[in-house]
Amino acid sequence: MRLISGIEEMQKLAEKLRLEGKRIGVVPTMGYFHDGHLSLIKRAREKSDVVVVTVFVNPTQFGPTEDFERYPRDSERDRRLAEASKCDVLFTPETSEMFPEEYLTYVQVDRLSNILEGKFRPTHFRGVTTVVAKLFNIIRPHLAVFGQKDAQQALIIKQMVRDLNFDIDILVTPIIRETDGIAMSSRNVYLSAEERTEALILRKALDLAKSMIHGGEHDAGRIRRKMDQLITSTRHAHLDYVAIVDADTFDELPKLEQGRRILVALAVRVGKTRLIDNTILTP
Amino acid sequence: MRLISGIEEMQKLAEKLRLEGKRIGVVPTMGYFHDGHLSLIKRAREKSDVVVVTVFVNPTQFGPTEDFERYPRDSERDRRLAEASKCDVLFTPETSEMFPEEYLTYVQVDRLSNILEGKFRPTHFRGVTTVVAKLFNIIRPHLAVFGQKDAQQALIIKQMVRDLNFDIDILVTPIIRETDGIAMSSRNVYLSAEERTEALILRKALDLAKSMIHGGEHDAGRIRRKMDQLITSTRHAHLDYVAIVDADTFDELPKLEQGRRILVALAVRVGKTRLIDNTILTP
């Protein structure tokens, strides 16, 4: 596995690989790998000749009061896990080279960046789309893999790719969960033992939505209220939102229609830790 | 010369040319060619194996009250002139394919897009950087040529290319003028005979700045006031702005420093036609 941190070195290698006819797959991450990340790398491995994994804790996608400074990092462990996952290139650019002081350019996907997560994290998706556009120009991949855990991010990146004519296939892989059902997240390490137990409420709320929908409930408002009640009954949990939307457009769905794929997504703060989860259902 | 209007066809051709090791040069234009455009194509011809000229009157760079609808178009003449200039590919995408109804993504260069022209045309540069980013992803050029006539546009595109890590050389070619000194512009056709004469005031104001600076004047405010007076004395001319800035950063320069390249730029409305011009001077 090759380690690269310089942008020019990465760009030159990508150009060379392309000229050799190699198919490049990229997995953009913020590191601190768990099995979710490894499933992304595995998918890229299946679909590409050369797998590039990027680790970059991107300051532009954190708000001023968010956890950029304390976001967990372990570059040595990430390196070992990337190598074991048969990653070919581990790209770890420096913040000072990615976003130098005189940096001015942002990529913004309107509307989709302002709803749900965007309401609570107003500049988050602008930071995501900007860094992903940069990584696409540096690595020149044929495909990129993202996780369904960040469902809104995946949708926004697909929209950006289509709008800006990036010639890149976007693959989205399923959420990977711990044995007790909590979605894997680098932020789970923030949770105390008690909070870790309470965090199961996200999964339970999604299960509740599932059983209501399978039981024939078609009123999205009623499902949201039941999920809200369940979460509010949990001592340290605070609900940011529950969304029940069209899985492909994120359009609000007051009435669920048979056969239409819907996304049930929620964000919950457990103590000081903000967690997200979602599931796709078909009534 | 090959004519292409489909995005996918253009993208496939660019990919093929790159795999053949060809150096691609692009000249993005809004068509209605004059000698300024032809000088851009000539420069691209000198520096590239394959020259792609794009003609696209980009709706996103026009404000709601601006001249998008009546902007001059002559696709038959453009085709002839491009062919005569040894252009290899004339790319004329459709508006409905470039900006379909569900379009959402914009590229924005902060600060530089909000000064000078940006004050009078608030969404103009956002439209320019967005369409240029799209054209770069479609045509995958090694180099792109822009005109010094749109000095602020050239600076903003260089900033975008650096910030978003496009691996593309940006070349900027000098302003081409009519024999009487007026800068060539597709918008000159809007001018009546009387306005055409009055439009010479832009060139005269730049000459005045030049002679003041060569005469030892170092106070930018004094130069701006003299230029303002000259323009205001012209019957149908209305000054939008005069700027005297660092040519490489567009920083305001109250006092001109010896040896520092400065840009003197102005925008003037002559009747209903808005014209811009500029010159680079070294005190």
Description:
Two copies of one chain form a homodimer. Chain A folds into two domains: 172 residues, Rossmann fold (3-Layer(aba) Sandwich), CATH 3.40.50; 93 residues, Pantoate--beta-alanine Ligase, Chain: A,domain 2. Chain A is built from ten helices and ten strands. In chain A, the strands form two sheets. A six-stranded parallel β-sheet of chain A has the order 1-4-3-2-6-7, sandwiched between helices.
The residue-averaged pLDDT of chain A reads: 97
- Poorly predicted tracts of residues of chain A: none
The CATH topology name of the largest domain in chain A reads Rossmann fold
- The CATH architecture of the largest domain in chain A would be 3-Layer(aba) Sandwich
Order of helices and strands of chain A: EHEHEHEHEHHEHEHHHEEE
Please outline the major beta sheet of chain A: 6 strands, parallel
Strand order of the largest sheet of chain A: 1-4-3-2-6-7
- Describe the oligomeric state of these chains in a short phrase: homodimer
Name the CATH superfamily assignment of the largest domain in chain A. Answer: HUPs
Strand content of chain A: 15-25%
**What is the name of the CATH class of the largest domain in chain A?**
Alpha Beta
Domain tally of chain A: 2
Fraction of residues in helix of chain A = 25-40%
SSE diagram, text form:
The structure is a homodimer of 283-residue chains.
Chain A: E1 2-4, H1 7-19, E2 24-29, H2 35-47, E3 50-55, H3 75-84, E4 89-91, H4 95-98, E5 105-109, H5 117-120, H6 124-139, E6 143-147, H7 151-163, E7 169-173, H8 193-198, H9 200-214, H10 220-232, E8 237-246, E9 262-270, E10 273-281
Parallel strand pairs in A: 1-4, 2-3, 2-6, 3-4, 6-7
Antiparallel strand pairs in A: 8-9, 9-10
Helix pairs in contact in A: 6-7, 9-10
